[in-house]
Hints:
CATH class of the largest domain: Alpha Beta
Distance between the termini: 7 Å
InterPro entries: DAP_epimerase_AS, DAP_epimerase_DapF
Largest sheet: 18 strands, mixed
Organism: Aromatoleum tolulyticum
CATH topology of the largest domain: Diaminopimelate Epimerase, Chain A, domain 1
Active site: 75 (proton donor), 75, 219 (proton acceptor)
Strand content: 35-45%
Order of helices and strands: EEHEEEHEEEEEEHEEEHEEEE
Radius of gyration: 18 Å
CATH architecture of the largest domain: Roll
Pfam families: DAP_epimerase (PF01678)
Helix content: 10-25%
Bound molecules: the ligand N[C@@H](CCC[C@H](N)C(=O)O)C(=O)O
Subcellular location: Cytoplasm
Oligomer: single chain
CATH superfamily of the largest domain: Diaminopimelate Epimerase, Chain A, domain 1
Amino acid sequence: xxxxxxxxxxxxxxxxxxxxxxxxxxxxxxxxxxxxxxxxxxxxxxxxxxxxxxxxxxxxxxxxxxxxxxxxxxxxxxxxxxxxxxxxxxxxxxxxxxxxxxxxxxxxxxxxxxxxxxxxxxxxxxxxxxxxxxxxxxxxxxxxxxxxxxxxxxxxxxxxxxxxxxxxxxxxxxxxxxxxxxxxxxxxxxxxxxxxxxxxxxxxxxxxxxxxxxxxxxxxxxxxxxxxxxxxxxxxxxxxxxxxxxxxxxxxxxxxxxxxxxxxxxxxxxxxxxxxx
Length: 277
Ligand SMILES: N[C@@H](CCC[C@H](N)C(=O)O)C(=O)O
């Protein structure tokens, strides 16, 4: 199969983006892993596939695959790249787009500044819906990480996140704890593990060990999850600047029951073609 794609990134969280509106695409987990492979394929944290809308009132559907081949519900940096992609490819002239994802409809908007703002939907804290195994709905919950007690906030931004507060994000145990939290038995769908340093009430520094991809330079849904966790823990006040290893995002949230707004860049690196076995 011959495939045209674009290589894009949002703050260094990188994507192979495929137009499945104008070309026939048949993906398997093996093909996703091959495309994501940084040595034998193109290389990316996630693969994004743009498809025609499957329901009335939305413009497109977009699907997200982690580098490990698994399909997931949501991707914040990907949502910003998706909008730039459909514009650059001439798939639409609309600047505000409603797009169907595995976890519902989100609404990204291409700003005059070139940045993209995305209504990422309403965060969910109910443990069963994250999903997180717990009989308490406390905002801060204890988690035993291979004998180390960790205090996390479990939240879904469409996809699951476990956010902990650390004193110094540069020295945080991301590589050691990340895979243990990702695969913790209390997160039956696995989880993205966030490590947040609070700089002041409007600024955090964040690293995320992503489910199915490992530590990335930035995670959009991770930034949303960290900010809502920080606001619920009364450590932060909206809006919050989130400093990641790949750059900065702005996150705004008016409180429980309200949607999270994320603003940041989306960049096209190059376009390419590849032959898939
Ligand atoms: N990098 C993304 C999140 C991608 C999906 C995540 N790894 C998961 O498995 O839920 C973002 O920017 O949000």
